[in-house]
Design brief:
heterotetramer; A alpha/beta (about 425); B alpha+beta (about 200); C alpha+beta (about 1000); D alpha+beta (about 90); A: about 425 residues; alpha/beta; eight-stranded mixed sheet; about 25% strand; globular; B: about 200 residues; alpha+beta; Gyrase A, domain 2; Alpha-Beta Plaits; 2 domains; seven-stranded mixed sheet; five-stranded antiparallel sheet; binds flavin-adenine dinucleotide; binds nicotinamide-adenine-dinucleotide; binds flavin mononucleotide; binds zinc ion
């Protein structure tokens, strides 16, 4: 059933009785043309675009838990395309363009809210770095605005302009940036894929990618072997664990990133704000909670929870720029597993194993990439050709030196 | 000849002004003072040189090299373990600088002895509530059953990398930071001491 | 509106009737007593409606009596101390307390948004995902703004928080969480064993449920037992009792987060005390004795003010002597209902009926109140509060019972929350009809009601046993058990997950207005995983985190999806256990104390000169020294540069990292670290060095002096000091432990000043003791020596230059830093000396084409920087291999060069990108970017440094420097990066 | 987390900084295929879900590099030792 105000009104009179499951719960078939491992945002988007843009139908998305339970369901939902490196810019901008028409495209309200992303700077050299980034964006036709202190004050007057340890001098604003409702993104893609025939197999964990004679033949799961001609790996934080079963070793480490939400309060923060004297970023959800986060917990982990030092550091950073919220209460904090790549940028590529495709290394920035990643990954799997917007995101860049290192911190993932 | 003689300054000049502060009622919980005119040297033993180094140190300071994060003190000198094969030598006496100098020359083959007399600010903190005030930043267990007189620790407190050692059971502690952080150290200690009432000496 | 009647009972309770307190709610003045919570005082004053629900804006009263409260949320205090969403049930009353209801307009009694209730059929679970998509542009302009306006409950405070906060650490052998009977007896056992014990309880008074119940221990009222235990614990030096302290989170390795509400029970904290203190408690063992939370019943309009948890009714009556109703209907599925009825009657309050959903106890009465067993409430009636309930009995007969309150009891949920913070999942127990703790955090055990052992005797027994066990496990002695006897209590319970359907919504999650039909709809639409159901309906996501609602929601999901409770499972409980004010987790570290500040040796002097400072990392450094004639940064910078180039200038460069390196393998070590060779540097000489990371990008640079055969002094950039030290230690301890070398940071040992300009030597001659020859021959460019100054003070002198002038850096022991800058200024007066700050320093280094911060940004290679010759060919060093990866040798990598505008007065900007004249902006056309710019007073022109493709080959060509974000587009000529004195004659002079 | 530094004793993990996989051997620059070997050394990590040996620096403590054996699923630490064999050998 198509979702709209009319269907809502109609169902209101019919005691909601006609609503159908947003996706089916099919039994796994014995064989698929394509299996996507990972029912996160990227896996579901890939399946959706494979079906919708490439007309492929015999596809399964295999998810070890419940769909959307990975990072797509636990991130701070910031969507933007304010990147600096030429390898990243076209990809993220393409993704942002897809976001802008996504809800109409998949008939699901993902509450994409383009209220702006403002990165604060606190020194002249940081201002110039941001100018460099803004200009790189503008080179690709992506609008950016460099605000001075007064410009920032006009937009977000409640920041601390008087007493900061690292006084706010201005900010780089991408007005088209913003946030989207995380769960709805996963659910919208899932519903869209399911309605086009994709089987979404929840509670199905891939235990091994089976490779014979240099090509993939399928996956072993807790529900048995499922054959497939092509396999797309989109398991986010767990990529190396799954890839290892195919003998693939990757330039990736897994870390925890924590996220935080406060009790709901009346509207306070009009856009996304990031602190340039740390890693803190904050926005306000549609429901009223302040949603924020900062740095990775600094050590590798597969436990989707963080520790107290990370909590305190984040909140100190919050107090550093927004002391006015000190009496607002933290409601919940949680963690998600990051696929941190060695240069902080993602990988969408084939592998040396025939039929095995890789989509990983999203670090803490893959939510915004969801539609773009799905689009480009679908393109790669369907056509065996790299999508032009993803051509820099290749796996061999570490060997060749074509790394895409936005922060310049080198091959140490926890510093990105 | 020169007409200018340079006047030295202590690290915390002007930051710990005499008087009573914080809570005014009741007994004073804490005393704070700057340790001034000390000599400090960092000692790093070279490979397999602990034994000869020990001899020289014994000769010049009359002290044994502590094992682990401990302090050994005698006659105005103390050795403070702060890392494997690493010690701080502190001298509170007038002539300690020249003794350290001699020590350095005598043990060149066994250790790197590097003057740190100007690199640190040192605060002494004592009184019945000293432990409670320190706990507002120091994450190690300061209970006397665990950390007592002559225990030392290199640790992190209130964003500062500090060396901490206990000098008596009153209890009294000395805390050192890089000199440039002296003001932040003083600020943290003072604000932690406020609720107990404190005297700056 | 009629004046509310007093519901304060004339006797009983543990309130202090000699200590009346006045307070206001929505501006209305009322009175309570010390010992009251805001909730009990509101009840005593007859207030029933306290807030409005989130979605439907339904009037809501008080449901519970503790931190589980979903309904009674208020804005406490006002202005900068305003605290939104404060649970009235845990806010202690103080004189002058101000509370305001929230999420209503214009008033609590009449809220226009209540109209939402009428449209509730539209607002089912997840409705917003299905609409607001058309027309597209309306989302931004109409729908979203409207949704956002409706969002949230309370308002954030206005202005800066006047209170302060603290953090602290505590260590113990055994942490006891909860001060009810289980916690107290655990503390007793642990305390008697000699272990260091900390007991935390959320509330101001120890005793837990015993404060709320009419119970007997050893034949005396339980309060006496509590008092005696409290006295014994207080007398033990090894036991710390922390009241008003909530354990909010469990973290790895025995770390517990605790928030102590030091002064929330007062209008304002006393001077010198924080409002709250956040503790990190590090415990070897912990006993969780957090008790349990009662479950509501699901019947039509079960949210009507006056409908309360039975345990809460008992708390208000027994502990606070406040009666929530005068004619109460008790609705129960367990023996608890009978206690409620008994306690109400003991307090002289009338019980209209006891509705017991369990079969079998037919046609009894309790002190005159009829007991209807096998019966259920279907729905409530009433305007602004319950006035009657509709009851159905086992034969299907329906009757209406008038009442003014309903006390519902549907069994208890153990407070397992903290057992889940490290990933543990609770398990369903059919025997206890509850989720009980599953896998526990290492070192934690669970006692009493939190373990599902609901009786008082079990609580006492569990506590003592686990307290003892914890102590013994870590080597303390066993305590003699002294188990007190208790009175009897019934524990029979047959949970009733939802009542027979009648009219009216049956709320599961009160705050978020989630009803049982929302859960049904979620299931119908495929949101069957408990986590999907939670997210789709938002069950349990409100400020109470579903403390009263989660389990009922799961039970309904289990029912409609045909699964067992076990199969459905729970959602994850996460920290904090109850919401925590952000300020307390930041403690002291806010405002300027966010991070420590590091001051240079000349800071005091520079402030006296009126210097303007800037942050570089944690350091404060002088940016420029304004004078009357040159008040702004630009003119001051120009003046400082000109003075330095023409006469002499001085700059505090103490912030540069200085690492003392000694040991017989120092030279070999440095050869492996630096791209260049340092084993060949003569003693008494300095060499410039470049370091790479192992991935072949430049890491840091600086000069290193050889002070002896086995003794070097390395300098690093200010920002790189820490990183370089860690890198050296890594290389030494991990890569090459066989090398004998030692490093010590001497950054702060030496106050170091750069003295630069044609008169620098003349100036120094006045300071350096005459026995040291500092003539150009004796002390040429790149010389280093230990000298004495001012009559015997040891100093280190280096002939190095960042400015391109003849220059020296002189280092003196830091104690002389302040005196030194004054001495230099005095000695330089005759030569027209000026101090210079970072602006001038940077201008001069740009004139000289030296690389710094934005050129050494971790993305550039020696080759990019034009420094490939510095990579010695004959030896290996860190990064050498990887710097030869193909991409790093590509001919069109942007290369470091200089830029000047065609019109010298045209301002250049850092961060501008380069485009060929005539080419359109695009990533492919992007040639590189400008890193550093300055106005050069020396050349009387703006100049810049940057990276541009094929830079070296293009010297002399013109390109556009385009700064879109600052609206400038400037023609620049590519030039050599050294703008001034290419041959370096000045610095060798 | 609490990490027991072999020198300092048990400390809050906040005092330490994490580098990554321990026991990596820096390749011989003169070896055959040095470029591939360095690529692996710098970039490729086992990233196990379970027990791992990892390098930490007691940065705000004694400045020892230490090897911590830690379970990345549970964070449980099974052993800690000095990275430098020189410190490992003898009492400090
Ligand atoms: C706290 C936090 C904040 C973040 N903030 C932002 C932000 O503001 N903006 C932004 O752009 N990005 C952000 N991110 C990053 C972003 O969420 C991720 O990069 C992105 O969601 C990853 O892609 P995904 O959605 O496909 O991953 P996931 O949702 O993690 O999907 C991967 C799925 O694979 C499944 N899986 C794994 N192994 C197997 C197996 N063996 N068999 C079957 N299935 C398997 C997992 O269960 C999971 O569902 C944040 C992340 C976190 C944790
Ligand atoms: N008969 C029944 O069915 C039944 C059911 C439940 C409870 N009870 C009664 O409840 C009591 C159970 O004793 P108990 O000691 O297990 O529980 P309790 O409820 O008496 O005490 C728990 C205490 O823990 C505190 N607490 C909870 N979470 C906390 C946290 N995170 N941080 C700090 N403090 C926290 C609470 O404030 C409370 O004081 C007995 O008296 C028992 O009779 C009876
Ligand atoms: C943007 C965003 C907003 C959230 N808001 C809330 C909230 O208001 N209430 C809540 O209980 N949880 C909220 N959460 C957290 C989720 O409940 C949950 O903790 C998170 O998705 C991680 O899942 P897990 O805790 O089940 O592992 C939010 C999460 C995100 C990503
Ligand atoms: Zn250590």
């Amino acid at each position: 059933m198509k979702y709209s105000i009319f269907s809502l009104i109609h169902q209101a009179f019919r005691q909601q009785q006609d609503w159908k499951p947003a996706w089916r719960e099919p039994e796994p078939k014995r064989e698929y043309d394509i299996i996507i491992i990972g029912g996160g945002g990227h896996g579901l988007a890939t399946a959706y675009y494979l079906a919708k843009e490439h007309g492929l139908r015999n596809i399964a998305v295999v998810e070890k838990g419940y769909i959307g339970g990975g990072s797509v369901g636990r991130n701070t939902t910031i969507v933007r395309s304010n990147y600096q490196e030429p390898g990243n810019i076209p990809f993220y901008e393409w993704s942002l363009k897809l976001w802008e028409g996504l809800e109409q495209d998949f008939n699901y309200n993902a509450m994409m809210s383009q209220r702006g992303v403002l990165n604060l700077y606190h020194s002249d050299s940081q201002r110039d770095e941001y100018a460099r980034r803004g200009n790189a964006m503008m080179m690709h036709g992506v609008k950016a605005d460099l605000l001075d202190r007064d410009g920032v004050r006009a937009l977000v007057p409640f920041l601390d302009f008087e007493n900061g340890r690292f006084p706010i001098q201005g900010g780089l604003l991408q007005k088209r940036g913003g946030t989207a409702r995380h769960d709805a993104v996963a659910w919208g893609f899932a519903r869209g894929a399911d309605s086009r025939g994709v089987d979404i197999l929840q509670n199905t964990e891939v235990k091994q990618i089976r490779v014979e004679n240099g090509r993939t033949i399928g996956v072993e799961t807790n529900r048995g072997f499922i054959a497939a001609k092509k396999i797309g790996l989109a398991a986010a934080g767990n990529t190396t664990r799954v890839a290892e079963t195919a003998g693939l070793r990757l330039p990736i480490e897994s870390y925890v990133l924590q996220a935080f939400v406060t009790e709901a309060i009346k509207p306070l923060i009009p856009c996304v704000v990031t602190f340039g004297g740390g890693h803190f970023y904050i926005s306000q959800s549609d429901k009223g909670g302040l949603v924020f986060g900062a740095s990775l917990d600094g050590y590798t982990s597969y436990a989707a929870r963080g520790n107290l030092p990370g909590v305190e550091d984040t909140i100190e950073e919050a107090m550093a720029i927004m002391p006015g919220i000190s009496r607002v209460r933290l409601l919940r904090h949680w963690g998600g597993i990051m696929d941190m790549s060695m240069d902080g940028s993602p990988i969408i590529d084939k592998t040396h194993i025939d039929g095995l495709y890789l989509n990983c290394g999203w670090c803490y920035g893959g939510f915004k990439a969801t539609p773009g990643s799905g689009w480009c990954f679908a393109h790669l799997i369907a056509t065996n050709e790299t999508h032009p917007n993803a051509k820099a995101l290749r796996l061999d860049r570490f060997a060749t030196g074509h790394v895409i290192d936005e922060s310049g911190t080198g091959a140490q993932p926890n510093l990105h | 000849m020169h007409d200018s003689i340079l006047t030295p300054q202590t690290a915390l000049m002007g930051l710990i002004n005499a008087g009573r502060y914080g809570r005014q009622e009741g007994d004073v919980g804490i005393r704070i003072s700057e340790v001034k005119n000390f000599s400090l040297a960092n000692i790093t033993a070279f490979k397999n040189c602990r034994e000869p180094l020990e001899k020289v140190i014994d000769e010049y300071l009359g002290l044994d090299l502590p094992i682990g994060p401990q302090r050994i003190e005698k006659n105005g000198y103390a050795l403070i373990g702060h890392g494997p094969d690493q010690w701080l030598a502190i001298g509170y006496e007038e002539n300690s600088a020249s003794i350290f100098d001699k020590l350095e020359k005598a043990s060149r083959d066994y250790a790197a002895i590097v003057d740190q007399s100007d690199a640190r600010a040192i605060i002494r903190l004592s009184g019945p509530d000293a432990r409670k005030a320190l706990a507002k930043g120091v994450s190690i267990d300061l209970d006397p059953s665990v950390f007592h007189t002559n225990c030392t620790a290199t640790t992190f407190a209130a964003g500062l990398w500090i060396n901490l050692w206990q000098i008596n059971d009153s209890p009294a502690y000395e805390i050192s930071v890089f000199r440039g952080f002296g003001a932040s150290l003083a600020s943290w200690i003072k604000s932690s001491a406020e609720e107990f009432g404190y005297i700056n000496q | 509106m009629s004046q509310p009647k007093s519901n304060r009972l004339s006797t009983g309770g543990i309130i202090d009737r000699n200590h009346p307190l006045s307070f206001t709610f929505d501006g209305r003045k009322m009175q309570g007593f010390k010992g009251d919570t805001l909730a009990s005082a509101l009840i005593a004053n007859g207030i029933r409606i306290v807030g409005r629900s989130f979605k439907y804006h339904r009037p809501r009263g008080i449901l519970g009596s503790g931190s589980e409260e979903p309904n009674a949320l208020v804005e406490l205090r006002s202005g900068a101390r305003r605290e939104p969403n404060t649970r009235a049930t845990v806010a202690e009353l103080y004189e002058g307390l101000e509370a305001r209801s929230q999420n209503r307009w214009p008033s609590l009694a009449f809220d226009v948004m209540e109209i939402n209730s009428l449209f509730s059929p539209l607002f089912g679970a997840g409705f917003y995902y299905k609409t607001f998509m058309w027309p597209k542009s309306f989302w931004e302009s109409v729908y979203e703004p409207a949704i956002r306006r409706a969002a949230g409950l309370g308002r954030a405070p206005e202005g800066l928080d006047p209170d302060h906060y603290e953090k602290a650490f505590a260590h113990c052998d055994i942490l006891i969480i909860g001060g009810g009977p289980a916690g107290l007896s655990a503390a007793l056992a642990a305390g008697r064993s000699g272990a260091r014990v900390i007991l935390c309880d959320e509330g101001p008074v120890l005793g837990g449920r015993l404060l709320s119940e009419r119970r007997f221990i050893n034949d005396f009222p339980a309060a006496e037992w509590v008092r005696s235990v409290e006295a014994e614990l207080s007398s033990m030096a090894n036991v710390t009792l922390m009241r008003r302290s909530t354990v909010f989170g469990v973290y790895d390795h025995g770390v517990y987060g605790v928030i102590e509400s030091v002064n929330d029970h007062l209008a304002e904290p006393p001077p010198y005390q924080p409002r709250q203190r956040s503790w990190r408690v590090i415990a070897k063992r912990a006993v969780l004795a957090a008790g349990s939370i009662e479950r509501p019943m699901l019947f039509g309009n079960n949210d009507r003010p006056g409908v309360m948890l039975g345990s809460a009714v008992r708390t208000y009556v027994n502990r606070f002597a406040a009666s929530p109703g005068h004619r109460t209907v008790v609705f129960t599925s367990s023996d608890d209902g009978l206690s409620t009825a008994r306690d109400l009657e003991a307090a002289g309050l009338s019980v209209e009926a006891v509705i017991d959903s369990r079969p079998g106890h037919n046609s009894q009465t309790m002190n005159g109140a009829p007991i209807f067993s096998g019966s259920q409430i279907i729905r409530t009636f009433g305007l602004r509060g319950v006035q009657a309930v509709e009851v159905i009995d086992s034969y299907g007969n329906i009757r209406l019972i008038d009442c003014d309150s309903v006390a519902m009891s549907n069994g208890w949920n153990p407070a397992v929350h903290l057992t889940c913070h490290l990933g543990g999942r609770p398990l369903w127990s059919d025997k206890k009809n509850a989720f009980v703790p599953g896998t526990l955090p290492v070192g934690l055990s669970v006692a009493g009601a939190a373990q599902g052992n609901f009786t008082l005797s079990e609580a006492l027994d569990d506590g003592f046993r686990l307290g003892t066990h914890a102590a013994v496990e870590i080597g303390f002695k066993m305590s003699e058990p002294s188990l007190p006897g208790t009175d009897q209590e019934g524990t029979s319970h047959e949970p009733l997950w939802r009542c027979i359907k009648g009219k009216g919504k049956r709320f599961v999650d009160f705050q978020h207005d989630v009803t049982d039909t929302d859960i049904e709809l979620a299931n119908q639409e495929g949101f069957r995983s408990v986590e999907h159901m939670k997210r789709y309906t938002t069950l349990g996501m409100a400020t109470d985190q579903g403390k009263t609602s989660n389990i009922a929601g799961l039970a309904i999901l289990a029912e409609v999806s045909g699964r067992s409770m076990d199969e459905v499972g729970t959602t994850i409980f996460r920290p904090p256990f109850t919401p925590v004010a952000l300020g307390s987790l930041a403690g002291h570290h806010r405002g300027r104390e966010f991070r420590p500040t590091r001051y240079t040796p000349s800071h005091k002097w520079a402030s006296e000169q009126g210097a303007v400072f800037m942050e570089t990392g944690l350091w404060m450094r002088a940016q420029y020294f304004p004078t009357k004639e040159t008040p702004d940064w630009f003119s001051a910078m120009c003046q400082e540069v000109t003075t330095t180039r023409e006469r002499v200038g001085v700059c505090d460069v103490s912030t540069l990292g200085k690492i003392d390196i000694r040991g017989k393998d120092s030279a070999a070590f440095l050869d492996r670290i630096y791209t260049g060779t340092f084993s060949t540097v003569p003693i008494g000489r300095v060499r410039y060095g470049l370091m790479m990371r192992e991935d072949g990008f430049v890491f840091d640079d600086g000069t290193t002096a050889r002070l002896g055969e086995h003794h070097y002094l390395m300098t690093t950039t200010t920002a790189g000091a820490g990183k370089v030290m860690a890198h050296l230690e890594f290389c030494h301890q991990v890569l090459w432990p066989e090398l004998d070398v030692a490093f010590v940071s001497v950054t702060e040992q030496w106050a170091q000043f750069s003295i630069a300009g044609p008169y620098s030597r003349d100036l120094l001659r006045k300071l350096v003791d005459p026995n040291f020859d500092i003539s150009n021959d004796a002390f040429p460019y790149m010389a280093a020596a230990t000298v004495s100054i001012c009559g015997g003070i040891t100093a280190r002198l280096f002939r190095i230059s960042f400015s391109g002038e003849m220059a020296f850096e002189i280092g003196v022991p830091n104690r002389y830093g302040d005196a030194m800058i004054r001495a230099i200024m005095a000695a330089g007066e005759a030569f027209g000396i000026a101090p210079y700050g970072l602006e001038a320093l940077s201008a001069m280094r740009i004139e000289k084409g030296h690389v710094a911060g934005l050129e050494l940004n971790g993305q550039t290679t020696p080759r990019d920087l034009g420094l490939e010759k510095m990579v010695a060919s004959k030896k290996d060093c860190i990064g050498k291999e990887m710097s030869r990866r193909p991409a790093m040798l590509e001919p069109d990598r942007p290369i470091f060069v200089g830029f000047r505008p065609l019109a010298p007065a045209t301002k250049l900007t850092g961060g501008a990108h380069f485009l060929d004249i005539g080419s359109e902006p695009s990533l492919a056309a992007d040639l590189g970017h400008m890193t550093s710019v300055t106005f050069s007073p020396t050349l009387n022109s703006w100049i810049g440094l940057g990276f541009i493709k094929s830079g070296r080959e293009r010297i002399g060509q013109r390109v556009r420097a385009v700064d879109f974000v600052r609206n400038s587009d400037t023609l620049v000529e590519i030039c050599d990066p050294i703008f001034f004195d290419r041959e370096g004659e000045r610095l060798r002079a | 987390m609490r990490i027991k530094c072999p020198y300092c004793g048990e400390r809050d993990s906040q005092e330490l900084s994490f580098l990554g996989q321990a026991d990596l051997v820096r390749p011989d620059p003169d070896g055959t295929d040095a470029q591939q070997a360095f690529h692996d050394y710098v970039h490729i990590r086992p990233n196990p879900a379970g027990v791992n040996r990892e390098l930490w620096l007691h940065a705000h403590g004694c400045r020892s590099w230490i090897i911590v054996e830690r379970n990345t699923l549970t964070h449980a630490i099974s052993s800690v030792e000095y990275a430098s064999p020189r410190f490992r050998e003898k009492a400090q």
